[in-house]
């Protein structure tokens, strides 16, 4: 029988592993990993590498990578629930124009935007503000 070689983990990664094991031991059924544990995993991955962290913490590397990327971008990660509906109502006058946009990213995530009563320049300003000032 082939023996498995176990290497001692660095203190920071071992601490993260223990936190995950405590959480796994106390939860009932399948529950989402709390954001605080994801933050611990992301911090460990930046210090010790994604592959090593995922093996030690028994995590999916694609999910951890998306968490790390979302932290860098300052936005929500793909694992967070999307906001189902947001209505932007222009102040004042009658509704003159209408615009419908349907967007889809390479992973298949879709978004539909319906704008009523906004001019083209308002739309450009909205998109620019959503992209952090980049047109």
Tell me what the structure shows:
The protein is mainly alpha-helical and 135 residues long. The protein folds into two domains: 11-73, no CATH class; 82-135, no CATH class. It has helices at 11-26, 35-48, 50-57, 61-73, 120-130; strands at residues 98-104, 110-116. A two-stranded antiparallel sheet has the order 1-2. A hairpin with a 5-residue loop joins strand 1 (98-104) and strand 2. Helix 1 (11-26) packs antiparallel against helix 2 (35-48), helix 2 (35-48) crosses helix 3 and helix 2 (35-48) crosses helix 4 (61-73). It is elongated, with a radius of gyration of 22 Å.
Keywords for this entry:
2 domains, mainly alpha, two-stranded antiparallel ribbon, 135 residues
Explain briefly what this protein structure is.
With 135 residues, the chain is mainly α. Helices cover 46% and strands 10% of the residues. It folds into 2 domains: 11-73, no CATH class; 82-135, no CATH class.
What's the total number of strands? 2
Distance between the termini: 61 Å
The coarse silhouette is elongated
- Judged by helices, strands and strand pairing, the structural class is mainly alpha
Question: Which residues form runs of ≥5 with pLDDT under 50?
Answer: none
Give the helix/strand layout.
Blueprint: H1 11-26, H2 35-48, H3 50-57, H4 61-73, E1 98-104, E2 110-116, H5 120-130
Antiparallel strand pairs: 1-2
